[in-house]
Amino acid sequence: MITRADAEALDAADPLAGFRERFVIEDADRIYLDGNSLGRLPVATRDRLAALVAEWGTRLVSAWEDWIDLPAQVGDRLAEGVLGAGPGEVLVCDSTTVNLYKLVRAIMADRPGALVTDSGNFPTDRYVLEGLAESSASRATRTGHRELRQFDADPVLGPSPDDVAEAVAPGDVALVVLSHVAYRSGAVADLAAIEAAAGDHGVPVVWDLSHSVGSVPTELHAAGARYAVGCTYKHLNGGPGAPAFLYVREDAQTGLRSPIQGWFGQAEQFDMERPYDPVPGIGRFLAGTPSILGLAAVQEGVGLTAGAGMAAVAAKSASLTGLVVAYLDERLGPLGFSLGSPRDPARRGAHVALRHPQAWPICRALIERAAVVPDFRGPDIVRLGVAPLYTTHAELFDALERLRDLVERGEHERIDATRSRVT
Amino acid sequence: MITRADAEALDAADPLAGFRERFVIEDADRIYLDGNSLGRLPVATRDRLAALVAEWGTRLVSAWEDWIDLPAQVGDRLAEGVLGAGPGEVLVCDSTTVNLYKLVRAIMADRPGALVTDSGNFPTDRYVLEGLAESSASRATRTGHRELRQFDADPVLGPSPDDVAEAVAPGDVALVVLSHVAYRSGAVADLAAIEAAAGDHGVPVVWDLSHSVGSVPTELHAAGARYAVGCTYKHLNGGPGAPAFLYVREDAQTGLRSPIQGWFGQAEQFDMERPYDPVPGIGRFLAGTPSILGLAAVQEGVGLTAGAGMAAVAAKSASLTGLVVAYLDERLGPLGFSLGSPRDPARRGAHVALRHPQAWPICRALIERAAVVPDFRGPDIVRLGVAPLYTTHAELFDALERLRDLVERGEHERIDATRSRVT
């Protein structure tokens, strides 16, 4: 049986142990296992934001000389330090939703045919594709309709290369959109094998890296990935609503036009009396004025993860989720829990889905009565997210003990489990 | 001849004089006349942002319970306190560019025909329309092309009702996009008369209020305006890259679909296993996760302007720009300056364009050698922006004296005027 001493031993040997103190953690007894919804506040980010606000106050518009390159600068750091991509291939801007829209629409412009995703993909990805398939121009011009095909992947293992090969086989597919790590089960899709399967039919894949970036390896170049988007407020700790990112491999940039043509994507931006002329390269995917506060926070968060190194981050993630799986196997089965995530650590992202028929009241009870913060994903998942930079094995063990104790005592049956909003 | 004593007397009688101390102004000798590019930092915003960052650190994901309504809450305050609109008609989200794209594309969905703007409209507005006219789906499906017509308005007086009547007369126009205040000349378009002129042909007008919001009256309901977007980092002092806003009058919301369908526009957002089902009302124009830091800053900025009251703000704006015009008439003509803004104060926004053949080196010299911060707009405009909440008549007078002195001494002819980026 795994013990707290085992967990403490893992922490003692953890090469990333020193990163925890680089985050603001004021109430250490409250065990936070929802860093994959909103990552913690880095100390450096708190200080940087205060400095940036002061800079706004004193330098005013002249500070734009330094700020204007932040979307590309932070993108380059993210590319090199985290994503396994190159300079000039990543921008930090807008939201994941807007970036996905821009990228998919740009690719669609040159590719007729159906849009494909899996029916378990994250809602905003599906909604964006639904909107693009219907094409907002359709009612007036009665043209532009695309078919949206949603295939059913294994709910635990996520979309497989075979799923994708089958989906693109008809030969009439414009593109495929998939999440690298599934938001429910935490399954890691096989980037390289899926790229190869789609590539056999010449079909581009657009990856949503929101749940994988900063937690599992995303070697985009090595995997042959050409297009991706993702968010920065989960494992990159960029803060609530921080700007997202967009990746286009260098050789795929030529000819790609953003549908949202804005002044930050314009060559010679301040020569204002000319028609639209997009900057060469990825910069054309900038639209309006980027959020400078958000970019500064993302820069700090990306720096932390890049400094830790993705190999160490991924190893720690696997170690932490392995602890959850081991504890489940040993002690949670009799309480009605089962594993809703892949058993293979190489196919598991930085969260574990514990399935239970009473998942919702259990989540509420954990938050309200056990000082543990999980997340609920309907209909039956207690989602435990681990953050390699600040979650310890010991606190994770404590959280599991509290969970077991709570359910054993039937505590979850005594709370008001009226559904409320949880992100 | 107007004197500094006259300016001081105007300040002594200024009902908004008390607002200046609510901004961070550390170097009072540096006269900032570019608040219409980036507004100053309010003291309350500095404190609010520090509190918000702390809240992120301590409350973590649970704070979303309070944050999630901010786009609508800040929008309602902006609607009621500044825009002359109603609750449920304004959202604060994304950038002006993205909001304009969403709104124009949504309207186009039901309206075939050409897109119309004036050739002097702000670049990002023209770029967005160029992209929408070409339609990013066109190469694959060879459909969806729209004509973009750009009419030439008077460069000083801006687009007139007659211009718009003429533009929509052919009967094949889908919509018109115009700026309320011209970014170069500062001309205020006649909202109500232009709405009437376009309305005679049933053509909707989408207003870009970026340069007018918080500086001149924008009584949207009274003027019959149905659609608008605008930015918050100019006269609303929301900070660099702060989220923008989007307005749709309540009766125009029905049936309008955002092309960018995201999870924040979804009814029952956290019931994730359903097709897209937009929330009733304006909320469907939300896309991805909104910037919470940005929204908090905008909330403080909007509160300041709403607290001052738009009538007082507009009166002060006219008084300040009137001082510039009077000084120009009396003393700057012999130095080669002429007025590039409307003479009628009711048609003049919160900036004045001083035309001069050497505008660019004059701007550089003002910044580098006279501690005055104007903005340059090519080819020949020294743009002086006044901010009713914090610009004083006395400092504005001083800035004009420095300008005159500098040009009289030929100081601008002795600087390195290599063009660099200025926003």
What does this protein structure show overall?
The structure is a homodimer of 423-residue chains. Chain A is an alpha/beta fold. Chain A has 2 domains: 4-32 and 310-414, Aspartate Aminotransferase, domain 1, CATH 3.90.1150.10; 46-308, Aspartate Aminotransferase, domain 2. Chain A is 39% helix and 12% strand. Chain A has helices at 4-12, 43-59, 64-67, 70-83, 96-108, 123-134, 138-141, 161-168, 191-199, 220-223, 250-253, 292-308, 310-332, 359-369, 393-408, and strands at 31-32, 90-93, 114-118, 148-151, 173-179, 205-208, 227-230, 244-248, 338-339, 351-355, 372-373, 375-377, 381-385. Chain A has a 7-stranded mixed β-sheet with strand order 2-8-7-6-5-3-4, sandwiched between helices. In chain A, strands 9-10-13-12 form a 4-stranded antiparallel β-sheet. In chain A, helix 13 packs parallel to helix 15 (393-408). The radius of gyration of chain A is 22 Å and the shape is globular. Chain A starts with a helix and ends in a 15-residue tail after the last helix. The relative contact order of chain A is 0.17. The model of chain A has no long low-confidence stretch (mean pLDDT 94). The interface between A and B is large, with 103 and 103 residues.
